[in-house]
Amino acid sequence: MTEPPRRTRAEQRRDTEARILSAARETFAELGYERTTIRAVAAAAGVRPGLVMHYFGSKEELFASAAHLPADELPPGDPAQALLSALRRRLEGAPVASLAVLRSMFTHDEAAEGFREAGREWLGSIERAIPAGQPELRAALIAAIMTGVVVDRYLLKHSALADAPADDVLELLRPCIESLAGAR
Amino acid sequence: MTEPPRRTRAEQRRDTEARILSAARETFAELGYERTTIRAVAAAAGVRPGLVMHYFGSKEELFASAAHLPADELPPGDPAQALLSALRRRLEGAPVASLAVLRSMFTHDEAAEGFREAGREWLGSIERAIPAGQPELRAALIAAIMTGVVVDRYLLKHSALADAPADDVLELLRPCIESLAGAR
């Protein structure tokens, strides 16, 4: 067995940044924008508060970075199937980045803007995959269904959706997604 | 023609309360909980701030009253048709009470609780109307779709849903609602 290669300083920096961003998303999701502090994020990431400030400058900038959701482009192929897989990922684990943004967006304009920007790329990739009339509105409704499912399952927790198995949810939503995705 | 009957003092009081509640819902929806003041609600209702305090006691109590959404029980008959009519009402005019609650619920526990309570009655009436297996999860998914449509159309405004005609939205969502409502 060969020894693992020593990590470069740039790699270490990237790892630390990623750990801070991940801690920031969880903290913003749990506490919302107003109540999240640099100190709390640093504690969750296991680093000194000064390091968070050094990398991100301010709470506003840290939020803007955390709110930039990872790209979630629809892969080529059957759009309904790809959308159901994307929905399965959101059902199997709380999407902390979108929860952080959703929880904060009603009090903080940067949060709403972060959500809209990430949403635009995602919407565009759905639109392009839909082989039917009104692709923009169809994509918008698919996105709205995903927003509603995430909000009700993870934030409102007021219905059977809070703890339903992913398979049951996907089976019931399959005809919806297929009809909106213009499946033939 | 007969003269309109003179309003009693109790009727006048009810009118004033209703006007204050309506102004409160619009102000909470627009500004969110934190930034809403008794003074702003009073101005929107065209009354003195002291009168709002006299009727409701505090901002917290005013919010609790405003967040108690009007009952929206599903009428008897074809559940899919009744659900599509309920959706049409939400598409044709911003549901200010639910927007007030949604916008505030992430920062304010009373708001979340108000939403859950109103939601439970609404969910129960959908469940009872569904003639298919898993009525609880079906009702939960229908409610989630409505939440998502309202949030995307009126709060996020990031997609074609923001200004799509109600008829187009209803036509595209009809197969979804019918399949979830267990239409035969």
TrEMBL record, chains A, B:
<dbReference type="InterPro" id="IPR036271">
    <property type="entry name" value="Tet_transcr_reg_TetR-rel_C_sf"/>
</dbReference>
<protein>
    <submittedName>
        <fullName>TetR family transcriptional regulator</fullName>
    </submittedName>
</protein>
<dbReference type="InterPro" id="IPR001647">
    <property type="entry name" value="HTH_TetR"/>
</dbReference>
<dbReference type="GO" id="GO:0000976">
    <property type="term" value="F:transcription cis-regulatory region binding"/>
</dbReference>
<keyword id="KW-0238">DNA-binding</keyword>
<dbReference type="Pfam" id="PF00440">
    <property type="entry name" value="TetR_N"/>
</dbReference>
<feature type="domain" description="HTH tetR-type">
    <location>
        <begin position="14"/>
        <end position="74"/>
    </location>
</feature>
<dbReference type="InterPro" id="IPR050109">
    <property type="entry name" value="HTH-type_TetR-like_transc_reg"/>
</dbReference>
<dbReference type="InterPro" id="IPR009057">
    <property type="entry name" value="Homeodomain-like_sf"/>
</dbReference>
<dbReference type="GO" id="GO:0003700">
    <property type="term" value="F:DNA-binding transcription factor activity"/>
</dbReference>
<dbReference type="InterPro" id="IPR041678">
    <property type="entry name" value="TetR_C_16"/>
</dbReference>
<feature type="DNA-binding region" description="H-T-H motif">
    <location>
        <begin position="37"/>
        <end position="56"/>
    </location>
</feature>
<dbReference type="Pfam" id="PF17920">
    <property type="entry name" value="TetR_C_16"/>
</dbReference>
